[in-house]
Amino acid sequence: MAGPLNVDSANGYSAEGSNGRCWKKVVDFAEAKVQILFAVPMVLCNVFYFSITLISVMFAGHLGDVELAASTLANSWATVSGFAFMTGLSGALETLCGQGFGAKMYNMLGIYLQASCIISFFFSIIISIMWVFTEPILVFLHQDPEISRIAALYMKHLIPGLFAYGFLQNILIFLQTQSIVIPLVVFSIIPLGIHFGIVYSLVNKTSLGFKGAAMAASISIWISFLSLAMYVIFANRFKNTWKGWSFESFDYIIRNSKLALPSAAMVCLEFWAFEILVFLAGLMPNPEITTSLVAICVNTVDIADMITYGLSAAASTRVSNELGAGNPNRAKHAATVTLKLSILVSLVVVLTDDAITCRLNCHLCHTKHLIRGCKGKWLAKLSSVS
Question: Which parts pass through the membrane (predicted)?
């Protein structure tokens, strides 16, 4: 069983010499090293899972300009109305499982996980009903009728993936709070590799075409969830934290919801701040072009956000584990180190975002005018907001 990420020298300053003490005051390298080693696998894991839906958009986009606009609009609508909400709901487990693991209440982690999965399933039903009416909703938001119609078709085939995505996010947090991160990279890159074959076959080798891109995303997300669930059920290392399904989990649904709903609201507001640009682009002339351009930039920002998400995951685990173990000073120190690392990472991302944007755009776009537009200075500036 992996233990909490404890750093014995977190509050000490053992460096010799004035220079060593000076640097120690700037950042605790021991704590920073622990958080970076934790964050890197989480960054890779989230990028791989995020890439599943993005790759589907890429394949759909190569079918035509209208298909690219519809798939990017659908992906943005799926993010703001579903995927972001599911990610936020799982945030309750960061507190509950993290502190439970730090306090060595291992049996409660499985109970919290089950309660969170029940909550995710309930809201997935509500969101899927809303997704069925995607076309009138998008038209009400003054999006192009033809693009809205095709986007609605994409959304209907993405509904099965919503349920799996909610369960997947809960399991990710369940493992993250136990400092189990390396297996997450393995279990995220395998479905991504499989997804390439699935989406290529459904889009190019069957009559499904555009619909096949969304179906492939749903299938791959389910593969991701089932593979990770089997790992938790059958791996011996979870014998203390996962003891099978229990009706006791229903007693913790209200408790989980009190943390899950505010967490979902915060995550949704963060995503909405960028994704609303896609809907605003749909109000401009030539929406099949402008929607695609802005959506590509927003996707670039989302990828950049995965880096900071990895750091936040490390901070959340460190802080919750230390609080659960009764070490508030160490929890405060870990949060301070994360803040300093975030500032450094933000500077690096801003400096490199332009090059990343140009490369991603060439893969998403298939027409010359889209590629030229994607490389425009105003879009590079937009993506550098991250």
Answer: 34-57, 77-97, 109-133, 153-173, 180-203, 215-238, 259-284
The H-assigned helical ranges of the chain are: 17-26, 29-61, 65-78, 84-89, 91-102, 106-132, 134-140, 145-156, 159-176, 182-204, 210-234, 253-281, 287-324, 328-364, 368-374, 377-383
Q: How far apart are CA 261 and CA 126, in angstroms?
A: 14
In a domain, 11, yes or no: no
Between 233 and 310, the higher pLDDT residue: 233
Q: What is the pLDDT of residues 123-177, one digit of tens each?
A: 999 999 999 999 999 999 888 889 899 999 999 999 999 999 999 999 999 999 8
Asked if residue 317 lies in contact with residue 5, where contact means CB atoms within 8 angstroms, the answer is: yes
Convert the pLDDT of each residue in 254-310 to its tens digit: 989 999 999 999 888 888 877 787 777 777 777 777 777 777 777 777 777 777 777
- Is 9 part of a structural domain of the chain? no
Closest CA to 71 of 153, 163, 194: 153
Looking at the domain assignment, is residue 14 inside a domain?
A: no
Q: Is 19 part of a structural domain of the chain?
A: no
What is the residue type of 239? Answer: K
| Nearest one of 159, 151, 119, 175 to 1, comparing CA atoms | 175
Overall domain count for the chain: 1
In 3D, which of 139, 132, 136 has the Cα closest to residue 154? 132
Tell me the C-alpha distance between 28 and 227, whole Å.
Answer: 37
